Amino acid sequence: MASWCGHIGESPSERPAVMLLFSPSLDPGIAVTVGAGSEEEGVPLVWDTMEGAAEEISRQAALRSRLEVGVGITSDACTITLVKHTQGPYILRQGPGAFGSSEKTALKKTLRWLGGAAACLAKGQPLPDERKEEILPHSAETETRKTTAAIERKKPLQGNPFPQDLLRRNAAGDDAGQQETSDPSEDEMVRRLVALVLETLGKAP
């Protein structure tokens, strides 16, 4: 069974696939990472090496692809070119040389996204979300906070359900200048609330 990603000399020539060309000086593992992104979208990828600028080799890759979609990668740039898009590369990103030794994860995400994007273009579908993996930690934290807040809002009221400020205002009487020196007891608060309700019912028409 043929692999989803393989060297052009090892893959069936009749099988439609995205074509990847990259500089011979780069790590061949690049093909595996780009191919993984293409495989996720269900489109095979074949690869080879070629000297030249990223724009030039991606154009050659597109011309050699039966799907007319080519990916070109040099140390300076990563490009995706469509045969029908004659105004230059359709997508342009920084090349592996722009990523430091501590940014290997970011580089792999970019290469994997390029493979998925090329496959989506071959199928005529929207490009995959380039940021989905990078925002996961913050997104997870945000969702946790939202869930916690929702649970807190749904908790039943604890203790005395009567509004304390209403009871205290009623206990102060009609004199707006009168101040309370201490909180009334629980029984006293209930008694005053009952008196307030009875007074309100007596004034009702």
Please tell me about this protein's structure:
This protein has 205 residues and is of the alpha/beta class. The protein has 6 helices and 6 strands, in the order E-E-H-E-H-E-E-E-H-H-H-H. The radius of gyration is 34 Å and the shape is elongated. It folds into 2 domains: 5-123, B12-dependent dehydatase associated subunit (Rossmann fold, 3-Layer(aba) Sandwich); 156-173 and 180-205, no CATH class. Helix 1 packs across helix 3. It has a 6-stranded mixed sheet, sandwiched between helices.
What general outline do the C-alpha atoms trace?
A: elongated
Order of strands side by side in the largest beta sheet? 1-3-2-4-5-6
N-to-C SSE series?
EEHEHEEEHHHH
Kindly report how far apart the N and C termini lie. 88 Å
* CATH class call of the largest domain: Alpha Beta
Helix content: 40-55%
- CATH topology name of the largest domain, in short, is Rossmann fold
Secondary structural class: alpha/beta
* Low-confidence blocks of residues: 133-171, 174-181
Count of individual domains: 2
What name goes with the CATH superfamily of the largest domain? B12-dependent dehydatase associated subunit
Q: Tell me, rounded to a whole number, the average pLDDT.
A: 77
Q: Number of DSSP strands?
A: 6
Helical stretch tally: 6
Radius of gyration: 34 Å
Main sheet properties: 6 strands, mixed
CATH architectural category of the largest domain: 3-Layer(aba) Sandwich
- Beta-strand percentage range: 5-15%
In short:
The chain has 205 residues and is of the alpha/beta class. Helix content is 43%, strand content 14%.
